[in-house]
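Repro:
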Amino acid sequence: MTDGIRSAIEGAGAYLAEHPDEARYTDSLATARVDDGLRIQVVGPNGETLATDMPAAVGGSGSAPSPGWFLRAAVAACVTSLAVMRAAQLGMDGFTCEVEVDSESDDRGILGLDASVPGGPLSMRIGFRMTGRAASSSPRSPIGRSNTARFPTPCGGPSR
């Protein structure tokens, strides 16, 4: 699997080196609509779907994960994907990776009780557990640090 990932990345890199104007693009649209109360349905252009709901304590029914949980889950999945891609580029064998993402929030913001408090995460932490053997010819690169530095967090900058 690592060879296939590395080969795909090399191919994409070579193509973009020849066509740098195609490297930057607008990501696919996610459209959210109210389903019922605080239950929200999100759809993508290719039939992707996602449902969220808020907990009963704030008027939802808790029928699906909260949007905040999906935000953290998306960051965890993105950072893990980047780590796997970097490990493949370095030729690492037996690479495994687990990424944990948590955040700190203040409910006064989400409930609109204090205009100085944002209605979302105040901070986000990304934790890694990784194993793998580097190929002898690969440069030693801190995969975790490399990925968090390259990943734009929803809080507006690299998470540390």
